[in-house]
Amino acid sequence: PLHHSAERGQLQSVEVMLDARADVGRVSNEIMTPLHLAATNGHSWCCKALIVSRAYIDERGGQQKMTALHMATERGHVHTARLLIAERADLNIPDAQRRLPIEMCRNDEMRRV
């Protein structure tokens, strides 16, 4: 349920589950945490709630072993990328293909983040 709500940006549902001590580090069948799913879809407020609840910001997930920052930059979610950087996401963690988050940027606005 936490994965589903984070992926869809349902902040109230995410907060209810976090208050009930849902496991923020649990991985889905796709080997992704709720933070990965929220970042992939640009749900910054859900990302913030998960980080406050101690989600590991630099967890690598999915087939490409990307961090939440990789996923946000790849999809062009500027606000989410800014949030992750402000929350001290490591900019130097490579994915499975040795790409850094900056290399995932698709436009100049994202590169300026």
Verbal overview:
The chain has helices at residues 2-8, 11-19, 34-40, 44-52, 68-75, 78-86, 108-111. It is built from seven helices and no strands. It has one domain: Ankyrin repeat-containing domain (Serine Threonine Protein Phosphatase 5, Tetratricopeptide repeat, Alpha Horseshoe). The protein is globular and about 40 Å long. It is mainly alpha-helical. α1 runs parallel beside α3 (34-40) and α5 (68-75) packs antiparallel against α6. Pfam families: Ank, Ank_2. InterPro entries: Ankyrin_rpt, Ankyrin_rpt-contain_sf. Keywords: ANK repeat, Repeat.
CATH class: Mainly Alpha
Largest sheet: none
Give me the CATH superfamily: Ankyrin repeat-containing domain
Report strand %: under 5%
InterPro entries: Ankyrin_rpt, Ankyrin_rpt-contain_sf
Pfam family, one: Ank
ANK repeats: 1-29, 64-96
Keywords: ANK repeat, Repeat
Helix-strand layout with pairing:
Blueprint: H1 2-8, H2 11-19, H3 34-40, H4 44-52, H5 68-75, H6 78-86, H7 108-111
Helix pairs in contact: 1-3, 2-4, 3-4, 3-5, 4-6, 5-6
Keywords:
113 residues; 7 helices
Write a brief caption for the model.
The protein is mostly helical.
